[in-house]
From TrEMBL:
Recorded superkingdom: Bacteria
Record flagged with keyword Membrane: yes
Record domain Nucleoside transporter/FeoB GTPase Gate: where: 42-139
Pfam families, A to Z: Gate
Organism: Virgibacillus oceani
This protein's name: Sporulation integral membrane protein YlbJ
Amino acid sequence: MKQIIKTLLLASITCFIAFAILKFPMDATEASIRGLTLWWEKVFPTLLPFFVIAELLLGFGVVKFIGILCEPIMRPIFNVPGVGSFAWVMGMASGYPTGAKISARLREENQITQIEGERLVSFTNASSPLFIFGVISVGFFVDEKLGILLAVCHYLGNALVGICMRFHGRTHEQNTQHSTKQKISIMKALQEMHRTRLNDPRPIGQVLGEAVLNAVKTLVMVGGFIIIFSVITKLLFLIGVTPFLAKGFQSFFHLLSLPIDLALPFLSGLFEITIGGSMISHEATDNLLAQLVVVSFILAFHGFSVQAQVASIIANTDIRFTPYFFARFLHGLFASLLTIILFKPLYLNRQVFDMEEVPVSKGFQQSIWTDFIRVLEQIGPLITFFALGVAIIVLYRRKQHK
């Protein structure tokens, strides 16, 4: 009976979306193009190098080397192996869903257990500095100083989530004991790195080709989710579902002393971060702190679009989605509270300090991010087409050798 209800529910949702697309074809096409443009101009060229490098580092044993060195740090703090530090750092540097991708690869190679994979996925996915500073702070709020506040709250909140999730699954690991008093041994780390490379018989050319191919496959999947959720978010707004649900959030916002006008942007941000962030920044309100609190929450929540990407990536492993989903609410709570606490020391006090100084660097700092995004928009499609071409060549040669 449960499976029948699930089948009917999924079929109804799919038919509803199809009907909405037929009813608003032009708006659906426009939303689809917007998602596609975002993917091939920014997402693909930004994430591709990180995905390829991550695959190469895994193949050459460098991740094993890093894991042994970081074991005495990661195990007592987050209760995960040292290799988790690689997923954490790469996830912060490149943005989601890199952390989930690396965590899934570590699980596939049995470098982490199922429970450790669930802990790792819960805190290794984060917004990239480029998105926080370039898109949110400079692009939407036109104030690069907000980037410091949002980034500190976001990444510190993520670390707090990792500390809390270290207790996840403790009952399943009662018989597993991990030594937290290991000494850092560079020689042992080098030996493990060498052993890992020798255990992989593939030549360097094959490793590089498969790294590009795996990265492109993942990014194509990511692009599909971005386009689909861009269309769904637009259609839900046109049909009136989002505004209707926003009315329920208005009462909740009123209890929290937040402007009720932020309810609709907040709900849109739960589906897609970029749309929600843009709507929040353009909302006519004098309460900047309230805007930043809401933005911090949706950045930490990741949006259903990113969550669907993560769910798809970990689907090939035994890592469960539920702990990750719970961690998103926990991260949102931490990030929002930290925004309230750190708003004055990291933003207001800096504003007063800068007003007393000669503002000679403001324009320069802003131009760094805006120029970088402008350059990325120009060369991003070229990088995307080049990588897709390489992936096609690799697939063709692989087929020829079969």
